[in-house]
Amino acid sequence: MDMSTPTPMLDEHHLPTDAAASQALAQDIAQSLSQAIAQRGQALLCVSGGKSPIPLFKALSAQALEWAKVSITLVDERCVPVGHPDSNTALVLQHLLQGPASAARFIHWIPSSYTALAAPAAWADRAPTLQAWADAVDAALRPLWPADVVVLGMGMDGHTASLFSQAQGLAQAIAPSNASLCAAIRPPHAPHDRLSLSLGALQSARHVALQLQGAAKRQVYELARAQASTNRPVSLVLHRPAQNVSVWMAD
How confident is the model at residue 6 (pLDDT cuts 50, 70, 90)? Predict the structure, then answer.
C-alpha cells in the first residue's frame, strides 16, 4: 500500500568509502551516547545484525565512552539459539562488546534455554510463544525507552529491522494503535521467525541512523525516500514527520 506523503528531510552523509562511513557513523553514535549520559546518566543503543555492520561494530567498540553507563540491544533477532550462525546476538557479542565496549550491558532477546525446532510450526501455533518473548523484550526495554540511538540497515526488498513486506505479523507491528516495542514476525521468504522492534518503537527513538552499502541499495533507498509504502517498510521510518533520521553511505 502506497501512502501520499511529502519527501522527507533527511540528514544524508556521503563518505568516500564504506569504511569511512562506518568510522564516521561510529563517532557520531559515540557523541550521541555521550550526550545522553551527560543529560540522563545512561544511554540505550539498538543495533542491527547481519554481516554489513561488522566494520561499524569494530569502529564503535574502540570509541572512548563511559561504556558502563550504556545498554546495548538489538533492533531485531532471528529466533535461533545464541550459538547459531544466524544469531544477531552472537554477532554483537563477538564484534561490538569487545575492548572498551565490553563494559556495556547487553539486553538479550532469545531465552538462553531455547533449542531450535527441527521444522517451524504453523504460525498460529508458533505466534503465542514468540509474542511472549516479544512481551519480555518490551518489559526489559520499557524502563530505558526511548532509545537514544537506533542503527538500522536495509534489505534489497526494502525491509528494515525485521519489518518485511507481506510478513505474518507485519500489520500488527506497524499499526499506529500498537504501543508495544517488540513484535513477532514471520518473513515471507527469509529464514527463521523473528522478533523486531515495532514501527512505533523505531519512530519514537531519539535518533535513527540508516547505513547503506552499495549502489543497488542506494536505488532502493531512493524509492523509499520518494514514497512511503508498506511494500518497502523502511520508507515508513523515513517518512514519519519530525523523525530524526541520518543516512550514511559511500559515494
Answer: low
Indicate if the pLDDT at residue 36 is higher than 70: yes
pLDDT band at 66; cut points 50, 70, 90: very high
Can you spell out the DSSP letters for 100-141? GGGGSEE---S-TT----SSPPPHHHHHHHHHHHHHHHHHHH
Q: What is the pLDDT of residues 41-51, one digit of tens each?
A: 999 999 999 88
Q: Which of the 8 DSSP states describes residue 35?
A: H
The whole-chain average pLDDT of the chain stands at: 93
Residue 156 amino acid letter: M
Beta bridge partners of 45: 72, 149
Reduced DSSP (H G I as helix, E B as strand, rest coil) percent helix, strand, coil of the chain, to 5: 40, 20, 40
The neighbouring-strand residues paired with 76 are 196
CA nearest neighbour of 101 among 67, 139, 141: 67
Peptide bond into 146 cis (omega under 30): yes
- Asked if residue 195 has pLDDT above 80, the reply is yes
Q: In 57-80, which positions are buried (b, 16+ CB within 10 angstroms) versus exposed (e)? A: bbbbbebebbbebbbbbbbbbbbb
